Amino acid sequence: MDKIASPATLRLGPAPGLVAQVYTARRPLDGDDRALLLWLHGGNFTSGSLESTRARSEMLAEAGADVVALDYPLAPEHPFPAGLGAAFEALQALAAKPAKLTGSAHTALFVAGEEAGGNVAAALALMARDQRAPQLAGQLLVSPMLDPQLGSPSMREGECGGCECIYTKGWQAYLGDSARADHPYAVPLASSRLAGLAPALVLSIAGHPLNDESRRYAAALREHGGSAAERTLPAIAPGYVLNPVHEFLREAARRALSLPA
Fold first, then answer.
1. Which label site among 2, 66, 101, 110 has the fewest CB atoms less than 10 Å from its CB?
2. Dist. CA 199–CA 218, nearest whole Å
């Protein structure tokens, strides 16, 4: 990829707002269609930053999205649902004036995230459905962190799940107590209501500890009648990601923008 200029800084949500960075799409979709994507970084709910996710944000912009990367509150200082609530306020702010960021009245709104950020993105899709707003065109989940039980074969093969595992520590910090593990917004994979959600593209990495739960979530979405494509890739890198993400954004935006308001 060519070098991308430094991103613009933006504040979203109620004042003083959360800090976000904006990356302009570098690949056209169809006609005037644009894909405005709220991106949530990984970090096991406890770490990660806008700087650490810059390469991912640039890659998504190269795939055709106008990316807003959000610096959302982290656990343990801000356990569930603090980060999710703040991200939803940011999403609502984007939905209020999407054309202001993309320059096009034909703008479709997406949520996306990696690992813990994928959990938050999946929960945002559930919230948007339940509140009937904002209208999402799609959700892009990259190795989403969805199962606090940590008992999948890929998790065991990765020698994760024990008390020293980064995923164990992340879930403990995020959930705080076991009662929260039953909340569908905290653990979307455990939700009994997965119908009526925005179309999903779920990307996972072969051999990654989160591979199995990523694939299980895509399968669960399909079982509930949803549209969910999945790909297990050798790596989350431009050579493997750009085309499938671009096609997902293009088709999901086209469909969303052709539906009656």
1. 2
2. 10
Q: Write down the pTM of the prediction.
A: 0.95
Residue 155 is assigned to a structural domain of this protein: yes
- How far is Cα 92 from Cα 120, in angstroms, rounded to an integer? 15
Q: Is the dihedral of CA 202, 168, 126, 131 positive or negative?
A: negative
Task: Answer left, alpha or beta for residue 245, where phi above 0 means left and psi between -120 and 50 means alpha.
Answer: alpha
- pLDDT at position 179, please? 66
Whether residue 3 is contained in a domain is answered as no
**Alpha helix segments (H runs only) across the chain:** 54-62, 82-96, 98-102, 116-131, 153-157, 166-175, 211-223, 238-258
**Residue 89 structural domain:** 8-258
What is the CATH classification number for the domain harbouring 21?
3.40.50.1820
Would you say residue 235 lies in a domain? yes
Summarize pLDDT for 82-101 with one digit per residue, the tens: 999 999 999 999 999 999 99
Give me the number of domains the chain comprises.
Answer: 1
In-domain check, residue 109: yes
- Phi, psi (degrees; rounded to nearest 5) at 244: -65, -35
β 18-23/8-12 pair status:
antiparallel
Tokens of 115: 């690992």
